[in-house]
Specification:
Layout lengths: L4 E10 L6 E3 L2 H7 L26 E6 L4 E6 L9 H6 L2 H12 L6 H17 L5 H6 L1 H28 L8 E10 L8 E3 H4 L8 E3 L6 H11 L3 E6 L11 E2 L4 E2 L3 E5 L4 E6 L8 H16 L4 E6 L9 H9 L6
Length: 331
Amino acid sequence: MGPDSFSVSSLFSRDECSGELIPVDSGWFACKGRFDLSDESRFPARLSEAEFSIPGESKVTVIDLVRDKVTTESSRYGKELFTAEFAGEFFLNGLIFWLDRRLARNDVAQLVLQDFLSRLIRRLIDERNMHLGDLILNKYLLEEKIRSKLDAYRLAAASSWLQNFLDLPELKADLVWETDFSFSKDRCPYPRAESAELYGFSKHFFSVVDDLGHRGEEYDCAREIDSLDEVETWVRNVPPRHQWCFRLPTSRDDFYPDFVARLKDGRVLVIEYKGAHLASDPAELEKRRVGQLWARASKGKGLFVWAMRRDEVGRDLRGQLMAALNPKMEI
């Protein structure tokens, strides 16, 4: 009978003034990357024609049963129908405030976002000669395109800062490795699962395991983990129940390493398995570096393995795991 729970630590940053621990996540990376929409040189309030255009006119068929005729009309509103009453309800500031409510996030001050939106809308009208009425009638499309723009700006700020941070030879003192998550047997994250025994696993934390398949590279990796003498218990760490799975942050979002194990000596081993076709993808490499950062912050309490069928120096799966568990050994 194994333990009823085991804990895993995450990355936090200690606030210099209050001493409060702040979770390290994509929003934290973006904040550190100075995601400031008031900086026009880095984050111009502009949508190009490729980024946003008003859809062209479409035609609708109108059947007049009284006059017994069929006509084709434009679906665009008539400019004469854009009355003062309609304009009064959705005038320029009204559109800006509507977008502000829809696009608000806690990493941008309300006045900063409103100013950004104001500059962007005025440029669409003044520089691209768009009509306010067209913008209002296509406000949901406009919202979608501005949201994509803001997400791209956030990602650029976060990714740039994170890469510079990961390149530092020494960790900053405000980065803290703190226990905040536990696997618990009364919170099984698998909605569809099979018995761990059917897979041949004797150390899996839950009595069931997510649909892993009985062959393939990830299954082989799981078998190697289960066979290690140093492993006390382990878990296949897969969503969809994110709140019950261990996460690591990247500049884009969270990622969930494939396996988490508790070792008999109290250390935690985190394994992310990658097929050869993904090993060199920039987004995947960022995951690898964040995992290594997590391990460095643990001061030896956490180990991270970027596992492949065969790594860059020719080691097989077992060789990679053994090298992480016993870094002084020649594998």
